[in-house]
Amino acid sequence: MKIIHKNKKAYFDYEILQEFKAGIMLFGPEIKSIRKGDVNLKGAYVSIQNGKPMLKGANVSRYAYDTQESYDPFRDRPLLLKQSEIDRIENHLNTQGVTLVPLFIGLDGRLAKLQIALARGKKKHDKRNALKEKSIKRQIDCTLKHF
Asked: Where are the alpha helices (DSSP H) in the chain?
């Protein structure tokens, strides 16, 4: 799967528990815009309404050659998952502190797919440890590069 846009903030803010791959219901100009790379998942989230998962807050920019008059780049987009996966997700969402976040969007052949994950929010000290480990790893790589 070719990754178009990655939600880097999700990996920093959340502890990933379980991942799922979902299809997205899009209009023609939207898929063209995604293939071009004009998509942003920052601030996006997934919610389940009436047993159907919906992607909310994702920004799919307007395709340059689209003739449609009214276009909402932040509209809610239905996700395509198996019923067993939806049931498993709903069971996990009932526990406290667990949410459903989009990780990245990509192209699987000619179809757009969204990688979503059940996640639990990290505490402030966990984020600090992640930054410290990243800094140490960067220093190690830099010193190994010079020798």
From this structure: 8-13, 28-36, 83-93, 124-146
